[in-house]
Amino acid sequence: VAGLGNYGLRGTRHSVGMGVLDRLARQLEVAEGWRADRRCCADVALATARGLELLLLKPRRLMNLNGLSIASAAEIYNLCPEDIYLVHDDLDKALGKVAIKLGGSARGHNGVRSCISALHSNEMTRLRVGIGRP
């Protein structure tokens, strides 16, 4: 599960994916387990939920380069694109509304575009979190 965003701009609406992962880590009681993984240039935490092993990942790069971290982690942790869930902001959804999207285009989202390019696939599942338009 990868939270897209701008690492240095946490708390902004475009980094809502990272905020969701922070909340998920607290709920799964692994919030103290975040560690920097230099191999993929990301903060990672391992968790278990309903018998599934999860790798939570927050890239330490700008949004437009998030895919490089996610592709590196996929290689390191032996994941294929279908195993990856992206959590990201969506300008076209009302604030706080969420939707799941199974694969497809980036729909203009630079972080998702970066992931599609770096993974050479668009098969990742996305949790789109509405941030509304200014």
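The above is record 1. Record 2 follows with the same two-line structure.
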Amino acid sequence: HTSIIVHKDEFFYGSGGISSCAPGGTLLGPPDSVVDLGNTEVTEEIFLEYLSSLGESMFRGESYNLFEHNCNTFSNEVAQFLTGRKIPSYITDLPAEVLATPFGQALRPLLDSIQIQPPGGNTFSRHNGQC
């Protein structure tokens, strides 16, 4: 699981779409590690408009795929918008590394059917004011 913390909230993507919570507020708890990608000049208002646009296009819940369009894809996209920097490749490359193994290939049909949404967040919607 990866997410982006910006403007005092944590934003993440799963099979329920884009969600938000207080930092470390999902049932997954505090992160195992934090990668500081720097600061942003993007205002909260512009960021929330951008996020709303993503939620209506590239990051709808039904677009989620554990291996090819997941929380890492979202975190990477948002990090580049906010800071111009990508998240580390050891994170974004992990699904491909798993699929490159015989075990990953054997499990893929089962894993493709799994819908992942870390519990404890609020579904993001610019219209209902949750963020």
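The first helix runs from residue 44 to 56.
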